[in-house]
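Sequence in, structure out.
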Amino acid sequence: MKDVYITRTSKFLPNDPVDNEEMEERLGIVNGKTSKARRVVLRNNQIKTRYYALNDKGEITHNNAQLTKEAIQLLCDEGFTVENIQLLSCGTGSPDQILPSHAAMVHGFLKNGNLEINSPSGACCSGMNALKYGYLAIKSGQNTNAVCTGSERASSWMKSNIFENEIEHLKKLEETPILAFNKDFLRWMLSDGAGAFLLEDQPNGDIPLKIEWMEGYSYAGEIEACMYAGGDKLDTGLLKSWSEYPSEQWAQKSLFAIKQDVKLLAENILVKGVDSLKKTLEKHNVKPEDITYYLPHISSYYFKENLYQEMKNNDIEIPWENWFMNLKKVGNIGAASIYIMLEELVTSGNLKKGDKILLSVPESARFSYTYAYLTVC
């Protein structure tokens, strides 16, 4: 089995950063009234700026595949071009279409000859699953390099026009035309962007990072869906697919909007996260004091203190000074967040040989967790 190294990192954040007061102008106002949930959600998540693939008129500037293509091109130079890529593995929770796959669309924009592609589906963990596919392909000797990506273009799913038909339908029924909190909540949480890693079987580059191991856990066998799109949640907890509804109800129910069961999130995301973290550290005999940098993807600073306390309760406390986060500046970019976080750490100039980095990514869709442990070479 070969060693695997992250030898290059890149990110692409579209347009200018958008502050909290500009958000609703970019995404649009629903039913002519500003959101009552916006300030509460922003106060809790503490995000100050984020990026949208929308211009100041709310017009789309990039689709998801284009964002990903831009990040990949930023990996490349004369020493490594897009034509040198052997494997393209692209994860996202917000693909531009159901078919073709996200990686196929990215490959279409790259136009770099024939190569293997892989498109993990899901939410935040899809970016890490894309990384694991590339990691295993190189480790097994099938490839000597792979480009792995995480990306999101959630803004187009959150624009006000997505909810216009639902609001009009409620008016006709003489019901209060207000957007449900499980939909409005995520409008103030999610951002756009893409990150990319080049993986190789040799420690090339200025700061190569050896991938020691990767682990994943799912709790879907215990817990119902929490974050979802393309369907609606029944009282039984089951999801009913968009394909089982008459087409006129797709817009009336905003079936393609991203929704979140906030109560279910609060009850499970930290408990299961620390449970899976403890499992993976014990499996690989890693102690908290071994970790130089802990990179947790969290959706909101609301969870930070409680996550630390839960870790402390389970005797796996990682000291605050070892945490590295950039949520306040770039927002929650789902599958891309961990890529962009690591890229910022790598380019910070603070890493030194022998440092250990733990990547930690939760996914609230149905409570999955993925981890990667890296050594600076």
